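Need residues for this backbone.
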């Protein structure tokens, strides 16, 4: 009885924190965007909108688990794909701020067993996707047998060490510092740099330096996908109209992705970026949000206007002329979005456990269009 009462008080407190004069109108419109997800028999999304440090909309649509009919809520744990990259980059920045890692050092200084490249590749280049390292789709680079490509989903299996042994032997896909070329491989290798420099896995380092201090108790890099995760949402893919099957990864490596989190936790990270409440303070926060000049010339963003650049794991630019920081994530049955409008103190999150988010229009863009028209046009 006491536990039930405590849960009710927490729920009421959360509801009080999220209420504002904007909430009824905004929430009704968000409901309309995700109306086809708002049923017990389908997977869906957790949607959050933050204004001035508090949620004005935080709601789940659909089910976190179809087998048991568990609804999505603000404490449902989602895998957020490449939205994770900002945490990997922040961990690297913390080590650089402490002087134990140089952003402009050749990567071989920290990972000497990597294949020798025909050009210097630095940690900084890897962070900004300027390293020329290429990605998983490199033809012939990742085969489990001659002519049989490894499938980076839930079909095949490599341990972190087995994957590293493949990655370290791969040549560059292009010359560094020529153009922006998105590289999950580079961010995986950054996780290995953190391991070598700090003596801790990325999971342990992030817990010690980021998630722990920010009291993000449900957030972590999942480098053991067989572990038990309370309140975890399962990922799904549609097989026929109205029918789904589970689509979860069996791969343990992290850095390029791998963060699990909740709406209740992510607001703490969002506010840390606003206040600079991070190891290294405001100076480190500003480093994270500084795009490399070359990325502004050569990067194309799905959501931001032309001329956007890439900082430390996050795109920096404008959404319809409004300054914005954005990153999306996509891995197996999960899709994610994190967008900040720093001059307006507005942030938007969409954590989804289905991979068809974009198949019938882009609900991410619809959501950002709605929030900017409702909340930012007055400013």
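Answer:
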């Amino acid at each position: 009885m006491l536990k039930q009462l405590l849960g009710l008080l927490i729920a009421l407190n959360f509801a009080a924190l999220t209420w504002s004069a904007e909430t009824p109108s905004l929430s009704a419109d968000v409901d309309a965007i995700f109306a086809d997800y708002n049923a017990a028999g389908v997977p869906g999304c957790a949607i959050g909108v933050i204004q001035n440090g508090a949620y004005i909309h935080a709601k789940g649509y659909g089910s976190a688990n179809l087998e048991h009919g568990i609804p999505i809520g603000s404490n449902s744990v989602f895998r957020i794909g490449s939205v994770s990259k900002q945490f990997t980059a922040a961990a690297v920045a913390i080590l650089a701020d402490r002087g134990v890692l140089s952003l402009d050092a050749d990567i071989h200084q920290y990972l000497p067993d990597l294949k020798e490249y025909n050009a210097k590749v630095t940690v900084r280049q890897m962070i900004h996707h300027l390293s020329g390292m290429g990605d998983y789709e490199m033809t012939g680079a990742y085969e489990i047998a001659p002519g049989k490509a490894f499938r980076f989903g839930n079909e095949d299996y490599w341990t972190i060490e087995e994957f590293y042994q493949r990655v370290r032997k791969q040549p560059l896909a292009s010359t560094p510092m020529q153009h922006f070329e998105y590289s999950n491989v580079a961010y995986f290798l950054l996780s290995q740099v953190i391991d070598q420099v700090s003596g801790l896995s990325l999971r342990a380092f992030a817990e010690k330096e980021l998630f722990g201090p920010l009291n993000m108790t449900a957030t972590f890099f999942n480098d053991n996908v067989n572990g038990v995760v309370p309140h975890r949402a399962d990922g799904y893919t549609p097989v026929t109209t109205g029918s789904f099957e589970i689509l979860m990864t069996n791969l343990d490596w992290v850095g390029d992705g791998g963060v699990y989190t909740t709406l209740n936790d992510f607001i703490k990270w969002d506010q840390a970026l606003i206040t600079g409440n991070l190891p290294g303070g405001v100076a480190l926060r500003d480093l994270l949000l500084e795009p490399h000049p070359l990325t502004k010339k050569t990067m194309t963003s799905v959501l931001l206007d032309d001329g956007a650049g890439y900082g430390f794991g996050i795109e920096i630019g404008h959404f319809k002329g409004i300054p914005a920081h954005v990153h999306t994530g996509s891995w197996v049955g999960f899709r994610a979005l994190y967008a900040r409008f720093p001059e307006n103190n507005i942030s938007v999150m969409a954590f989804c456990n289905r991979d068809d988010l974009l198949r019938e229009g882009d609900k991410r863009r619809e959501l950002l269009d709605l929030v900017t028209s409702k909340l930012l046009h007055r400013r």
